[in-house]
Amino acid sequence: MSPLHFSLVLLLFAYAAGLLGSLAGLGGGIIVVPALTMILGVDIKHAIAASIVAVVATSLTSSAVYVRKRLANLRVAMLLELATVVGALCGALAGGILPERALYLVFAAVLSYAGWSMWRRPVATPAAGEADDAWADRLALHDGYDDPGLRRRIEYRVRGTKLGLAVCWLAGVIAGLLGVGGGALNVPVMNVGMGMPIKVSSATSSFMIGVTAATGAAIYLMRGEVLPFLAAPVVVGVLLGAKSGARLMGRIQPGLIRGVFMVVIAVTVVEMLAKGLR
Amino acid sequence: MNTTKSDSKHDAGGGPGQPNLHAVVGRVLEVGMWSSVVLIAAGTLRSAFSGRLGTGAAATHALVTASATPLRLGRLAEGIAHGGGNSLAMAGLLLLVATPVVRVAASATVFVLRRDRAYVVICSVVLALMILGFVLGRAG
């Protein structure tokens, strides 16, 4: 493949990754990194670096739309970003120390759990008011949103703030380490653990991922590991894909979003296991 | 901007003259995103048409396996001044990564104006940690 050819192929892969990523509340990195390394033969380090910058782009484009639609809970996002940002710093710095194979296995295990717990408890709008959380009260995290599909306003109460912070730290570590957004952990913990509706969880995660990924990306970028030749088509493709995804998001039923999310998790787990066990 | 009666009480801003967090944040995200995309696309097209990318699989292989050289802002500015496509794309990537930093700073400002102390502290810590990322990356 000539360089121009290669760029166009990258652009296509990136578009598909961005579309799926924004629909599932993922950054798209979970699809971009395996596609770059396994299908296109790019060095994993460069793939991670290009991916994490693209993840920033995905988050920016989809969260701009979600913010306008008021789906994202900005206070929850700000609070959980404390944890994801610390995690992303740890992850990006630890990248050189831990063996990649071990990371793939841990990632596959965590993802399997996330997928399983979400599948077990499909909670479009979690039951309100059980188990009060003093942190959530004090930080005024409770909110509501206008559901475009159901055509009514849905109020929700946030709980499990400490659990959310802990899981989001881990999400940040994985984001910094593997060049992904961490949405695969953010979304289930907000939805199942913190009692937020699935659409709000996806939108809030998408919003947080920009800050998480930018922190990791800054390290990769300043180290010079982001190659413009790779990163430029990946960023543009992912952006366009995410833009399409965000347009669809408000009009799609929560069940369908969950379905897409489950498929993405299943495929990724298989890929990660294959990499880790080889 | 789409405003409805059902604005949430704490995120919508209190009333006339009160900063609307959603509006400020949304604006920052969009301006940063589109400016960086224009830079990245312009830089890539410039590289592509300068003929410096080469042709054939060997050229692709060389581009994909290029080794990392630490980013220095002085060198980047020089590259842009000389019309380098790569430098231009790199500046776009840098702007993209800096946009969430600006977004957090904008949010912090809104919370300062609203005298919401807990969130001023939260935003400031996040901001400091993000800047630390640039510093740590520069250090190697």
Number of strands of chain A: 2
Mean pLDDT of chain B: 80
Q: How much of the sequence of chain B is in beta strands? A: under 5%
The chain-level structural class of chain B is mainly alpha
Distance between the termini of chain A: 27 Å
What letter string, H or E per element, gives the SSE order of chain B?
HHHHH
Q: If strands are numbered along the chain, what order do they take across the biggest sheet of chain A?
A: 1-2
Output the radius of gyration of chain B: 20 Å
CA radius of gyration of chain A: 17 Å
Q: What is the number of helices of chain A? A: 11
Largest sheet descriptor of chain A: 2 strands, antiparallel
Describe the 3D structure.
The complex is a heterodimer of chains A (278) and B (140). Chain A is mainly α and 278 residues long. Chain A has helices at 3-24, 29-39, 44-69, 74-94, 100-120, 134-138, 161-178, 183-193, 198-223, 228-249, 254-277; strands at 143-147, 152-156. Chain A has one domain (3-277). Chain A has a two-stranded antiparallel sheet with strand order 1-2. The model of chain A has no long low-confidence stretch (mean pLDDT 82). Chain B is an all-alpha fold and 140 residues long. Chain B has a domain at 75-139. Chain B has 5 helices and no strands. Chain B has helices spanning 21-50, 56-64, 73-81, 85-113, 117-139. In chain B, helix 4 (85-113) runs antiparallel to helix 5 (117-139). The longest helix of chain B has 30 residues, at 21-50.
